[in-house]
């Protein structure tokens, strides 16, 4: 087995409970059909598929006090947090197969708690078209998949901000957001107020992806747990149509590969989310296959041998 990477556990979270479109609940199975387990095994990684987390169905109701499906979102995220925490305790690298991005509240809570318990530094790379730094006061929709970063930083309902037993679960200076190109106006003010480190597409256009990733990974060392939260809408919709919240002007295939290869080069990734894949909006599972291709690069696939 590939000793560079710890053993990996695949964990499905088949829900669209926090989203504005139905269909992300089918994402885990689409990733399995695209061969994510076999792809990692072929790279020498020890892979176990833990199956799917079970949670409440999506009632598809309007928002209440600014939140859609808060109780159901809480149940799913508690289950996600517990599942990832079990893998950390077992010395395994969890890959959360989403599901919509509200589930990152659970994964970030688990990762942050793991870092507190082990004395590791936390660095989160948030690969997304959106900052997901909304609150119930400013959200235009009430969809909680637009709030996970805010919740992790202590902005949100107590049941979500305190999920991992520590408020806030993480500080804004522990996250780097890459590929951002759609931010609601009130959200922009919150991002500036809290000093979130955002590498938006204009920044990437100006300095290039290599310098962007060097900046985002600066300070990551042997004492760092690197968590990657990969929303498939990070990618340009011309190559990844299977998402409910497409935003034109995202990273192209080579830029996305470089992101993944530089993360792999760091050797510090300790957990991964793959979120918002919506097969109902895809074409012949093309987006899932691309996601699997990129995940292979996260685990060391490259054109040439690089030391």
Automatic annotation (TrEMBL):
<feature type="binding site">
    <location>
        <position position="132"/>
    </location>
    <ligand>
        <name>Mn(2+)</name>
    </ligand>
</feature>
<comment type="similarity">
    <text>Belongs to the arginase family.</text>
</comment>
<dbReference type="InterPro" id="IPR014033">
    <property type="entry name" value="Arginase"/>
</dbReference>
<dbReference type="InterPro" id="IPR020855">
    <property type="entry name" value="Ureohydrolase_Mn_BS"/>
</dbReference>
<dbReference type="GO" id="GO:0004053">
    <property type="term" value="F:arginase activity"/>
</dbReference>
<dbReference type="GO" id="GO:0000050">
    <property type="term" value="P:urea cycle"/>
</dbReference>
<dbReference type="Pfam" id="PF00491">
    <property type="entry name" value="Arginase"/>
</dbReference>
<feature type="binding site">
    <location>
        <position position="130"/>
    </location>
    <ligand>
        <name>Mn(2+)</name>
    </ligand>
</feature>
<dbReference type="InterPro" id="IPR023696">
    <property type="entry name" value="Ureohydrolase_dom_sf"/>
</dbReference>
<feature type="binding site">
    <location>
        <position position="233"/>
    </location>
    <ligand>
        <name>Mn(2+)</name>
    </ligand>
</feature>
<keyword id="KW-0378">Hydrolase</keyword>
<feature type="binding site">
    <location>
        <position position="128"/>
    </location>
    <ligand>
        <name>Mn(2+)</name>
    </ligand>
</feature>
<dbReference type="GO" id="GO:0030145">
    <property type="term" value="F:manganese ion binding"/>
</dbReference>
<protein>
    <recommendedName>
        <fullName>Arginase</fullName>
        <ecNumber>3.5.3.1</ecNumber>
    </recommendedName>
</protein>
<feature type="binding site">
    <location>
        <position position="101"/>
    </location>
    <ligand>
        <name>Mn(2+)</name>
    </ligand>
</feature>
<dbReference type="GO" id="GO:0005737">
    <property type="term" value="C:cytoplasm"/>
</dbReference>
<dbReference type="InterPro" id="IPR006035">
    <property type="entry name" value="Ureohydrolase"/>
</dbReference>
<comment type="pathway">
    <text>Nitrogen metabolism; urea cycle; L-ornithine and urea from L-arginine: step 1/1.</text>
</comment>
<feature type="binding site">
    <location>
        <position position="231"/>
    </location>
    <ligand>
        <name>Mn(2+)</name>
    </ligand>
</feature>
<dbReference type="GO" id="GO:0006525">
    <property type="term" value="P:arginine metabolic process"/>
</dbReference>
<keyword id="KW-0464">Manganese</keyword>
<keyword id="KW-0056">Arginine metabolism</keyword>
<keyword id="KW-0479">Metal-binding</keyword>
